[in-house]
Amino acid sequence: MDRSSLRLPQFLFLLSVLAFLESCQPQPVIQVDILVIGGGASGTMAGIQAAREGVKVAIVEEGPWLGGMLTAAGVSAIDGNHRLPSGLWGEFRQRLYDHYGGPQAVETGWVSNCLFEPSVGDSILKEMARLDNLEIFFETRWQSVERAEGGWKVGIENKNGRQEVDATILIDATELGDVMAALKAPYDVGMNDGATEPEAPAADNDIVQDLTYVLTLKDFGEGQDKTIPRPEGYDPEVFRCACIPGLAEGEEGMSCEKMLLYGRLPNDKYMINWPNCGNDIYLNIVEKTPQERDEALREAKLHSLRFLYYIQTEAGFKNLGLAEGEYPTPDGLPMIPYHREARRLKGIVRLTSPYMSAPFEQEYPLYRTGIAVGDYPIDHHHKKNPEAPAIDFINIKVPSYNVPLGAMIPPQTEGLIVAEKSISVSNIVNGATRLQPVVLGIGQAAGALAAWCIQEGKPPAEVSVRAVQQTLLDARAYLMPYIDVAPDHPHFAAIQRIGATGILRGVGVPYQWANQTWFYPDSIARTVDLLPGLRDFYPEMAAWSGPEELVTPVVLAQLMQAAGQGMAEKEIQTAWAALFPDIPYVASAPLSRAQAAVLIDHLSKPFEAPIVLTGERAAGASHNH
Fold first, then answer.
1. Alpha helices in 171-255 (DSSP H)
2. Fold of 31-206+341-474
3. What are the tens digits of pLDDT across the range 13-48?
């Protein structure tokens, strides 16, 4: 026998020992400005926005994908904000349009105007996140987090071993708010809104919304049988009311064909996220350990497979099977479930439904601090939990709304920003703020806030609200949910700024599954439109008693002089040529609401007056023209 062959095992053993010893060596500490824990919907956008601001960012993500509920959970049908393409959400959607061939190419299902394959969504997000100063650690878990001098020390672990990340600002973008819980930041779980919500249940409880293990199916064609083995515990009666097999056109009820078209995706795929006797399931795993969660989620997966078996057998769609290769998982299921609810931070401010319903009539003008917008109604899933109090959430009517900046900031845990579904909202409001475009906007705002903290050397609680909002406006994000002033409007930013002061106010309308707020930019401005906001923003206006009339340049000058702004009609005339070059100036001609907003923004700059996180003017601050 060749003597060299005897030495080969010894050589391989030596290599393994050396590799083991190398893995035991302490890894260098990773130094970043901002660490985002969680590469889901909000975490991805936070990382992208902060990195675009020029600071050094890292994202730690447990799985191999970006996007969380959008992709890794398979909820690839966007709920809401179709006419509010704010910031990075609008950019992501445009990239989907470009990939598939336009808006009509993603209007494939009746639940949404924008549906896509989860794997495509992941690839687009990864392309957006390809930035020199953004590092992403995939398949990496955070193991420990502690406050250190001037920042945070976070232990992370992956196949390469354990490592430490040092960061100045920490963003909790986990699906369930795990980081803020580990740091003992105050939070709520369940239905405990109390007197802040008139529709809240009488007694507190820890009930959260049903979750779903989504299925992504593919039509393999007529004659193909993709029926899975009968799942353990399968009972067709559980799913009998999901749809009616063989229902003829025109007959009353939900046909199984229509149920499937609910979440039809491009390329003959289907998202199965069906709440009515479908694959929703009640599992409250919020406070469980990762191991306990994994064990509990086995039942959620099994429940969804039972529903698939029902679709293939009772409903007769044996040609529909799990989309092969859609997810990098051995079972063909998404990497994570769709969590509709998480821990909710007790933040510096809390968004409740009265603030959403009547933002200009509340104790604090939180609308002035808006950083993300939403138009989806308050929608809760509790059908799988008989213990859940009967609340008709869909009848709690609200218009489109914005999310206040202070809802992301803990009052005491310095250096921490909270995103995803764990912001400071009531349980009832969570039914609206949990939707994908809102969470994307929350993440973008978290990134803008974190970058400001790094650039200014200040903690989140000392934020310049207006500075962060201007950063978002520069990124084509909405502060106010104006359905009729899109980002490509020539005066989008000015109208947003004046809306965020409350000087000119929009009109909110609860409307079906896409609520609205209208600014009416082309309508004629009247003094009755301006006076409530002017009196609220400028105390000098309290005694104004002028007549109700149309707002002309002359009248606008009088109003602003009464507000202590010293705006002269000649200044308006001088500014007009630059602001409206194609429109002749006439001192006595009525102004549109857009023109009035632009002139006030340009000449008086009320947006530059500092405000605090409750929306009030900062103490001692003045802003005179």
1. 178-182
2. FAD/NAD(P)-binding domain (3.50.50)
3. 555 555 554 555 567 999 999 999 999 999 999 999
